[in-house]
Amino acid sequence: MTDAATVPLSERVLRGDPRAVARAISLIEDESPQGAEVVRRVFARTGRAYLVGVTGSPGAGKSTLVDRLIAELRRSGKTVGVVAVDPTSPFTGGAILGDRVRMQSHVADAGVFIRSMATRGNLGGLARSTSDAALVLDAAGKDVVLIETVGVGQDEVDIVRTADISIVTLVPGAGDEVQALKAGIMEIADIFVVNKADREGADRTVASVEALLSLDSYPDGRWRPPIVKTEANTGKGVPELVAAIERFRAHTAASMGQRRRARAEFRVQELLAHRFVQHVHDQVLEAGEFQALLDRIASRETDPYTAVDDLILRSVAGPGVAAPSGPAGATLDHIGIAVADLGAALSFYRDALGLEVEAPEEVASQRVRAHFIPVGDSADRRTGAAGPNLELLEATAEDSPIAKYVAKRGPGLHHLTLRVGDIRASLARLKAKGVRLIDEEPREGAHGSLVAFVHPASAHGVLVELKQATGVPVERRPTERTDS
Ligand code: CO
């Protein structure tokens, strides 16, 4: 049996397993609860990597520069993770292509892990997933994590500010652009790079950045962003850039805690807003209610303030008002039936009852095959999960828990699974009430779900499984990607 079936994903990430790192980042991109779970579990062991944000206008040769940076860092014995972000390109756009090209030169190097991220619509989500992806690379033991993004707008600022140092890349002839930079990037630039410095106009670009810097004052102790000239194509200036990064790191060592605290504030505020909105959509609003609310506002039947106050009130009003899948409630997800003879079971459930049996799912860690039979009359629109289901469980090995169950008690009802909104909250409640749990911590289930079992001793002879479904509705769930 491989690690994948027996060792938790977070543990494999901490061991630096590149497949686990790729998987964890995919889950984070999908906003799966499993991705959040990985971050929860590894977070205490992060904070060791140095996060370097690199941004700049498209065409600044940033990809080549990052490639050179990787090589230079590797020469000094450091391991490197790269998160390449391209907010402006669609999913199949430039980031992935660039990543592929660059990967070529580092593909055989186990000390380098490169991953591209693209937007799935919302940029707040991208800043969040970028920062979580950097955490995963940190947890996996990378010494330096490069966060590369294209552009100089607010979104890029948000992404780059999740780093310990921000490098802004310019090219000769970007004088107008330097003026435009004043607003956003100037505040976050710790180092300016003028790339393609062999080109005409390089000195003018350096001068316009200088002019900009001279508008500010740099008393003793305040870092004045240096301007480093590089030629990424030849690698000229790259050792100087690495030296400048090291100087900044030493300069800010004492204030590192402060910088990371500011980053924590930004992340918590952003996540709080995101999670609250998500909570309102998932747990407070009925299906179609949001659209109806917008209609009522458009026709002046109500106003946005009243509507939002009402939603806030309902979201904090507690379990009585919460939807059935809220932390305090549960909906039936499926009933598991241990089967001794699959053919006979199918001839009853499928042929005689006329139910539709889905293609079986292999659960390797349990040595079982699960055949789901939807028996609900509607899909749950809030979560996108259909249900409830019957689950015919067929042992695939003699030592499978299902084989043992059948041998001991005969075929029949095995477990029932309740879907909850927040599995950790449910487990905490159960624990507080003295309920005996088989799993005190949720573990990874199928389709990015989190699951935990309650002991039959506390559930009146029934094996009860709790399940928190993925945040991504089934029909929109992206297929597994293999780009890293
Ligand atoms: Co089950």
Brief descriptors of the model:
484 residues, alpha/beta, Rossmann fold, 2,3-Dihydroxybiphenyl 1,2-Dioxygenase, domain 1, eight-stranded mixed beta sheet, seven-stranded parallel beta sheet, 15 strands, disordered C terminus, binds cobalt (II) ion
Overview of the structural elements:
- The chain has 484 residues and is an alpha/beta fold.
- Helices cover 42% and strands 20% of the residues.
- The chain has 18 helices and 15 strands.
- Helix 3 (18-29) packs antiparallel against helix 7 and helix 5 (62-75) packs parallel to helix 6 (94-106).
- Residues 89-100, 318-327, 379-384 and 471-484 have low confidence and may be disordered.
- The protein binds cobalt (II) ion.
- Residues 334, 336, 391, 415, 417, 465 line the site of cobalt (II) ion.
What is the compact description of this entry?
Helix content is 42%, strand content 20%.
Main β-sheet: number of strands, strand sense, barrel status?
8 strands, mixed
- Rg calculated over all Cα atoms: 27 Å
CATH architecture of the largest domain: 3-Layer(aba) Sandwich
- Secondary-structure content class: alpha/beta
SSE diagram, text form:
Blueprint: H1 3-6, H2 9-14, H3 18-29, H4 33-42, E1 50-56, H5 62-75, E2 80-86, H6 94-106, E3 112-118, H7 123-139, E4 144-149, H8 154-160, E5 165-170, H9 175-181, H10 185-188, E6 191-194, H11 202-213, E7 227-229, H12 238-251, H13 256-284, H14 289-298, H15 304-316, E8 331-339, H16 342-352, E9 361-363, E10 368-379, E11 386-395, H17 401-409, E12 412-419, H18 423-432, E13 443-444, E14 450-454, E15 463-468
Parallel strand pairs: 1-4, 1-5, 2-3, 2-4, 5-6, 6-7, 8-11, 12-15
Antiparallel strand pairs: 8-12, 9-10, 10-11, 13-14, 14-15
The site of cobalt (II) ion has 6 residues, from strand 8 and strand 12.
